[in-house]
Fold this protein.
Amino acid sequence: MSTHALEIRDLHIRYGAIEAVKGIDITVPEGSVVALLGANGAGKTSTLRTISGLIRPASGTITYYGQDITQMDAEKITALGISQSPEGRQIFGDLTVEENLKVGAFVVSDKSRIAKAFDRCYHYFPRLRERKKQLSYTLSGGELQMLAIARALMANPKVLLLDEPSLGLAPLVVRDIFTIISEIQKEGTTVVIVEQNALQTLKIADYGYVLEVGEINMHGEAATLIKDTRLVEAYLGSA
């Protein structure tokens, strides 16, 4: 079995006449945090949605531990071990926190595994345990983001895809979210994170890819990228 959790080769994604992603190559080693960085419209979210089976690519291949998943249905991809926490949270507001988490475990039939997944999520996010009977529309932005990540974890994924987890959150909440993402990785889950907050992301990532209008214009070890003056000027701003 490949030690690479994901390998993307020559991926092209089109929306009608528009080519959103133009032949990118990305490697995600098992157990790593890999960041996809870049401005809005760079093709980051399209790439994540294609990995999770929500979009079919125009061409190229995506393999998961050596298995070709390029044309696989989203539900089967989730069952294999890839879960996505989507941009904009996409929580069911009229369900409780606990009910939303149960939705995340839809591919798991073993009740003991579901119980363990609940314990794991409440360990990472104690606030969700406190609010488990609350309707989700009553949560704060930070709590909604915690719920979105926890819901993705309920399927016990080997690979967790995170789309803009810091979007619209206060700096202290962002710091907490990134600390938890690091913990999730340390416990063995591979993480692919799409972010505009490049500085915070590179602090916890192992490797980064910078996308610009559908192409990778820079990639390397996160520790190297964070010191790159071109990247700092283009995407990071001041610390």
